[in-house]
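Record 1 of the preview.
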Amino acid sequence: MPFIDAKISKKITKDEEVELKTRLGQAISVIPGKSEQWLMAGFKDDYHLYFRGDDSEPIAFIEVSVYGGPDREAFNRMTAELTKIFGDVLGIAADHIYVKYSPTADWGWNGGNF
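->
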């Protein structure tokens, strides 16, 4: 039950969005037990972000919410994947991307909780 929510400081095209969605669907499998089948992704582009007090370069803040406990090794691999994906697709430098992980034991779907 992963959810990837990305706030991006630049406008993205539909083609870029589709490529991001596709590549995130492939990358999510680096977290054990997660797959594209259950992945939900959202993108907020043209979002007002500042990093180091500056907004002259593209910036991204990416939140990855997952059902289950933390897995630092998998999260580290996922951060590498995310920075590569957002760098390749949108030209955002790795040092202008923050990634936040939110593991949870409580996750609701289809009228109930797991």
